[in-house]
Design brief:
Largest sheet: 6 strands, parallel
Distance between the termini: 28 Å
Number of helices: 14
Radius of gyration: 19 Å
CATH topology: Rossmann fold
Number of domains: 1
CATH architecture: 3-Layer(aba) Sandwich
Order of helices and strands: EHHEHHEHHEHHHEHHHHEH
Mean pLDDT: 81
Strand order of the largest sheet: 2-3-1-4-5-6
CATH class: Alpha Beta
Shape: globular
Helix content: 40-55%
């Protein structure tokens, strides 16, 4: 990583980048930024987020390589030029001394752990394109981490909202044998993005949780409005089963349909939370996560914010 100080970021036109991996919570994080654009502007932060749904705005539309592009031998140049053009169209100007916050839940690419046993294998080439497109260094990046058990369950639930899926447990061997996990991803982020500072936030994101934003800006942020509750609530087992029943019958589901099913079979109404892992399996994944966090502790170039510290703030 570069050796640039991140002090007084608001005076230097800093680039602050959020890297999120939790499919059930990243939508709420993006909505926090979208809903509070004006409030952040008053605190010296310009927000850049993608438009995902009709009820949100968006000014970030990057051109990042997909797996098929890399397999076809495409180099980074066309993606860099395309990203520069879309950044400019969204209001990005690298010459302005404004601090910019960017958040896009697709920056790291897909987690291919279920089918291929690979943990965000496209992170480095996608972040490299972004880094070269911006025209100035990324001063601070926050990587939001999560226990493997919770991440895998949440990712499966997210995939189950898009189309038919095999039973979760059929993927378990691939998940157990995932190679370079969080440790490998941290290395890929550093190589691809070369941020001045990388903050590892080990606390899962929630709609009312502004610690991630404060960690990103390296200062307290106040008066932040949270998104609606339903974008954060864990999905129930019955909701997953109902969605899958529709998909297997060839019935397409709109975003509104999916939301209705999740609300009709919500955990708050007494339905069981979707959690297909046994206690032993959860312990195994959690132990790996804790061991990797401990291994990262001595890294002088990383800031590691753990849940116990988050709770004390």
């Amino acid at each position: 990583m570069t050796d640039q100080s991140t002090a007084n970021l608001s005076d230097t036109g800093a680039v602050l980048l959020a890297l999120t991996t939790q499919p059930m919570a990243t939508d709420s994080f993006r909505r926090i930024l979208d809903r509070n654009t004006g409030q952040f502007a008053q605190q010296g932060l310009d927000v850049f987020v993608p438009k995902r749904t009709e009820d949100t705005s968006g000014n970030l539309a990057l051109c990042l390589p997909a797996a098929r592009d890399l397999r076809s031998g495409y180099g980074p140049k066309p993606f860099i030029q395309c990203s520069r053009d879309t950044l400019k169209a969204g209001g990005w100007d690298a010459s302005l001394p404004r601090t910019s916050v960017m958040a896009d839940d697709t920056l790291l690419g897909e987690m291919l752990a279920f089918e291929q046993g690979r943990f965000f294998p496209l992170a480095r080439p996608r972040l490299r394109v972004l880094a070269k497109s911006l025209g100035r260094p990324v001063d601070r990046a926050v990587l939001v981490m999560q226990d493997y058990a919770d991440l895998y369950v949440a990712t499966y639930a997210s995939l189950a909202e898009r189309g038919p899926m095999r039973d979760f447990r059929s993927f378990l061997p691939a998940l157990v044998n995932v190679g370079a996990g969080w440790t490998g991803l941290v290395g890929e982020v550093i190589k691809g993005l070369n941020p001045c500072r990388l903050v590892l936030l080990t606390e899962p994101l929630r709609g009312g949780n502004t610690q991630a934003l404060s960690a990103l800006a390296d200062r307290p942020l106040t008066d932040i409005a949270a998104p609606d509750w339903h974008f954060d609530e864990p999905v129930s087992r019955d909701a997953i089963e109902m969605m899958q029943k529709n998909f297997r019958a060839g019935v397409g589901l709109s975003q509104a349909d999916i939301l209705d099913i999740k609300q009709d079979f919500s955990v708050t109404k007494g339905y069981d939370r979707f959690d297909p892992l046994t206690t032993a399996e959860r312990r195994m994944f959690s132990n790996r996560y804790r061991n990797e966090l401990e291994a990262m502790q001595p890294a002088a170039q990383l800031d590691l914010i753990e849940p116990v510290l988050m709770a004390a703030e």
